[in-house]
Amino acid sequence: MIGFKVLLLSVLSLNTVSARAIDVADRNVESRATCVYHCGSVCYWQEDIDEARAQGYKYLKAGTTVGSNSYPHQYNNYEGFSFPTASPWYEFPILSSYVAYTGGSPGADRVVIDKSGNFDALITHTGASGNNFVACTKG
Predict the structure, then answer these.
(1) Residues assigned a catalytic role
(2) Same domain for 6 and 44?
(3) What is the bridge-based pairing of β-strands 109-114 and 119-124?
(4) Domain containing residue 76
(5) What pTM does this model have?
């Protein structure tokens, strides 16, 4: 009888742990499914933006660059966007593959940060003429 009670308590404990794990996973999927910005047809979640911003700032702070276009590099804002922070601004690729940029093709999308690593915007070449950028849309 004691063995049965121990087994029953063990099963109940595992079910409780499993239910909690599923609940946490569901909440993570739900928050991941909320698109913060669209660049063309690509949806970026907050964690993607945070990762690209942090990666770009890491290089900026170290005084190093990556890729053939030397990212991050100063963004001159020829398009006249209104950013929440003061210049200078820097652009760094944010990839539609959702991995941090470490070189190679930068794709069309960029995160814009200030000299302190603060987020300013997401911009894209998608839908822009020539080598210009257009703003990615929120939501």
Answers:
(1) 73, 91, 125
(2) no
(3) antiparallel
(4) 37-138
(5) 0.76
